[in-house]
Amino acid sequence: MSEFFNVTLNDVLLDDSVISNRTGWTSEKIYREMINKRITKFEELEDVDVVNKKNNQLLAYSESKRKFITIDAIEAGQIIVTGLRQISKTGIVGSPEKPEIVNIPINTTDFKVPSVNILKYNLGTQDIIVTKNEFISGEANDFIQDNMVVFDGKAHLKTEHNYKFQVERELETKIEYSVHFEKSDFKRVEEFSTFEHGVTENLKVIAIPYDRLLIPTGDMNLSNVEHIDYFKLTANSKNLKVVCSVDGGTIWKTFKGEKWINVNLDTESVRVKGMDIDEFNKINDVFWNELITTKKIRFAYLLAMDTPQDIEEIDNLDLKYDGEGKWIQAKEDTFDVIYASNTLLQVYVKFSGDIKINYQEDNEGLSIYENHWTKECFKGVNLLTDIKDIFVSNKYHAISNSEFTIKNNIDSVDKETDIKPENQLHLVITDNNITILDVFILPQNTQKYILGISPNLKVFIKGQFDANLYMTVC
Q: Mean pLDDT, to the nearest integer, of 240-265?
């Protein structure tokens, strides 16, 4: 006990400010230390893209990006879909005269397969060139403030420094002035001179500041970038060095020996290991896209001068990239759907590119609502019987939203018996062939759903539903 706690009488001391083998930390402190000291954070993993993360989101795998991405919780219901299938095809070559045929195995009866839709991939704008930094005065706020660095359409060290003289005393024939000047602030002092500015006397000093890092305060947002062609740095310098970070400035990288390596963010490390202008501009698209997986990056620069006459300045930083593409629903006249048999669906694609085919099978034997539920089965009950009647003739006055309620009337026995498939009702509601509700209802349980106005709404059911013996709909 004494190895972990400092015990005084009956008290146990847990002091978060002390690190010792004779004291302990609270559980909250231990938790914080584990989080802060973890080697790899979740968002830094290669197959995770959470650049757009926000509160109340879920994580899902994206086949197109081949990464785990964040999605809004409301979208989750569109992912967990029973019966909805998707086929992805790349490099389709089709035309109206000679469509490419995609064969899809299905399992249905009486050709009860809802309509098929196709998403086609449209490339984003290609070969876009933008200037990410011009180093104008307004961009000074994008970097850690440093009064030895000037932003005037170029970024460079300040070599001319002005100081206002203070009057010490006035004599009959002259005036004595003084000025405070710290020579230790500079790497090299070249010359002193005086000048008048209005009625004041001033001291001008030509001096070189010590080498310093120009460090950004934030990241460049690359969320609209699908592929990076290059970054190009325009500068006039023999001493400039560059490093970069893709994790918000925690770890800094440089490029050496055809690979990215870590480097400390201090002047000496960057001077020795940082990238010069030629090295930086020669990095090709393969290595940039290998590095930038978090859709963000920031660059830090080492500025150094040997004499006041040296020209050491950064002009601008350009980026060339291809914009993000989009999945767009193909028009129905660009493809044909052929139900060759109850086990073969054929899609004739009349265009070229990458596609996703969405289709839905017969929901494993689920029967359509209007085929089995009729008003006569539920006399005297105010029920929603025929979806077409509700939304076409307004027979049941569904002018805004209507509440659909279904109850499984089978007597509950016990948990083990209730969860048997034959004792549950399987309810599926689709809108425009997209499943919007998919639930199992246990004996004596009720499911409610608000039906919005849609002419394409269908309700599917599987289970014991003869007449009104096993269910109630109202």
A: 94
